[in-house]
């Protein structure tokens, strides 16, 4: 059973905040006028724990409302020590906090790490410098990027909060902010439509006619689009819309803006309305219909049905929703290493159905999740190593990919570990033929077999077309040149591979529809401009999956379920 998540909120308003954003009046928003003492924090936690079921619950303590890492380190330590005591006893399972991007550095992260903090949320609000400046944020987009990288590198989960309807903002800018949040590797986000609150700079601008807040319809429309973008990328949206205090509502401090107590419900219902609108045209009046609902969305679907009962009953005698994991086969299946950097995984989820590979004790750890170690893909079929995880086999089967089981297990040491690491093109089987699993030659017969000394051939070779290749191995380069092919050699030294001196550039790549997807940025390679030029001269475009170092992930293999199956990693 999936555990239900609970967060125990501790508000620490205005502490160390270096400036007042135009939209901010923390006293009204949180209802908290002074910071709590450590003993009060303990009591708040205890009171919340009384209301949370112990079974099947994942409980976190969250420090919100101010710039936590700007507080004096001594006070941070006092708060965190209380939280850590509950985590040590097993009563809570994580500690999260929110802070400003420009209040993150190595020393701050070291302190948080020592007290067991698990998640850090940054109030990014926007990833447009003009919007940040007009909103009085006092930091830049670059500050968000730097802080995000430091947080991820230190091993914390990253959250990035955003707002819509800020001064200078627009729907296009907000959507771009969402996409950049995904690219920065956030695992979660919050979406807050901007409200006009008494006592803020934004109130003055609103009264002067210099600021116009979003209407409720505009905010719901935009938020629905953002929810779909984040959902497709696998980024959890843990809050939509402000959860205001009694001071804010009862004290008449909320002056204008798209506030609704069930704001998320409105946005989710709009998504479902769009999904169901075409149905009356597809089904005759009086019929019945069963509609699959992705896990976790049942209440939004049934909520839509309840509020639109008259319209539905005009077309159907019976409407039934059922919960099901929906597979979208019009999008490609993508397989890569489970340890692939999170921004890369998020970007790939925007492109298709991502399945992550992980194995135990089959090969050595550095390559234990590399798909090119276990799958040899050609246009006719996929030859798979025995013992490959069932999840991978099931996903390939669902897409109608012909699967053929190899004979030999990959060994824990080279060269046995490279038995399936061949490159298959319409013309060639390219591999160290002394170690190739014999099923590969049987499956892809009729091709010319090219022997190279490098067993890790696919790790070192990317076939752009049947006669244009990229390699990080001089021996492979020599053999292909002798065949009259065009070959571009790339120095492997700048490529990262955990546990090894370096990886190989082709292991960073995958190909789909004349696009070369790269796990990392070419700016981190001294041949970057030449690499890009060679790929483009071959008739492909370059798609950077994240703005970080080139990372060998064992290849990114794309599969389609269209008639006449063909692996796209060719």
Describe this structure in words.
Helices cover 33% and strands 22% of the residues. With 570 residues, the protein is an alpha/beta fold. The chain has a seven-stranded parallel sheet with strand order 1-2-3-4-5-6-8. Strands 13-12-26 form a three-stranded mixed sheet, sandwiched between helices. Strands 14-15-16 form a three-stranded mixed sheet. Helix 7 (171-183) runs parallel beside helix 9 (216-233), helix 9 (216-233) crosses helix 11 and helix 11 crosses helix 13 (298-307). Mean pLDDT is 87; it is low at 27-32, 279-285 and 562-566.
Considering the chains and any ligands shown, give keywords for the structure.
alpha/beta; globular; three-stranded mixed beta sheet; 570 residues; 26 strands; 21 helices
SS elements, strand count? 26
Query: Biggest β-sheet: count, sense, barrel?
Result: 7 strands, parallel
Helix segment tally:
21
| Average of pLDDT | 87
Query: How far from one another are the termini?
Result: 40 Å
Structural class comes to alpha/beta
* Secondary structure: helix percent: 25-40%
Q: What is the global morphology?
A: globular
What is the topology, as strand order, of the major beta sheet?
Answer: 1-2-3-4-5-6-8
Radius of gyration: 27 Å
Low-confidence stretches: 27-32, 279-285, 562-566
Beta-strand level of the residues, as a percent range? 15-25%
